[in-house]
Recover the amino acids of this structure.
């Protein structure tokens, strides 16, 4: 399955196709990580990343000691609900620390050294976010927006870190947005517009200030849903 695309992404797309085509039906148990790894000649890390993304999107559920099972054949991103959000207050803090370390540094590099193509990529992601009207479309566009900032740093280590932890970061972003039960999408889209504008103006501190404001806002918005 080796190609220019991340192996875990290829594997995720292949398994998603099996689910959508109902070759793996709702309730079916998925093969073990080891079995999938051998069948597709790829590492267990790539398998685990692909499975985490399927879980984050609600296609599968994992039961400790029992394995992973198909939960849905249709598009599904976790809703903003206490029974679905899998983040604790500590998890949220750790993700914010990661974003400050990678995203803020990437923004500074992008603003000082980024190309017009880097800005265009960020703008494309924003347009997809602005047009998003389903939970999956929103989560996909949100991830691409933040990933575009990392790519704009042209730091291969930063990009590799984001690629390695794609499923974890995607899950975090998906749980932040949910399915708009609290009607936050319009506000979030405005914030992303302001971030894009600040980066386009090559003003990293303005962009970072906007993002910092969202950290506290989202904590207050979501803290009642965090697991204990």
């Amino acid at each position: 399955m080796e190609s220019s695309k991340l192996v875990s992404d290829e594997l995720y797309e292949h398994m998603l196709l099996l689910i959508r085509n109902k070759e793996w039906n709702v309730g079916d148990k998925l093969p073990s990580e080891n079995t999938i790894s051998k069948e597709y000649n790829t590492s267990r890390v790539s398998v685990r990343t692909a499975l985490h993304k399927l879980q984050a999107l609600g296609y599968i559920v994992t039961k400790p000691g029992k394995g992973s099972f198909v939960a849905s054949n249709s598009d599904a991103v976790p809703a903003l609900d206490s029974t679905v959000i899998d983040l604790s207050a500590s998890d949220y803090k750790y993700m914010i620390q990661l974003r400050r370390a990678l995203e803020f540094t990437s923004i500074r590099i992008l603003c000082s050294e980024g190309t017009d193509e880097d800005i265009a990529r960020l703008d494309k992601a924003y347009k997809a976010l602005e047009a998003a009207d389903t939970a999956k479309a929103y989560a996909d566009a949100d991830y691409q927006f933040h990933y575009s900032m990392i790519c704009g740093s042209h730091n291969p280590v930063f990009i590799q870190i984001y690629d390695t932890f794609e499923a974890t970061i995607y899950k975090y972003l998906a749980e932040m947005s949910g399915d708009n039960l609290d009607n936050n999408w319009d506000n979030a889209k405005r914030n992303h517009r302001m971030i894009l504008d600040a980066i386009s103006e090559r003003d990293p501190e303005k962009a970072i200030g906007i993002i910092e404001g969202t950290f506290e806002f989202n904590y207050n918005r979501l803290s009642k849903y965090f697991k204990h």
In short: The two ends are 39 Å apart (CA to CA). The beta strands are 60-63, 67-70. The CA atoms of residues 60 and 70 lie 4 Å apart.
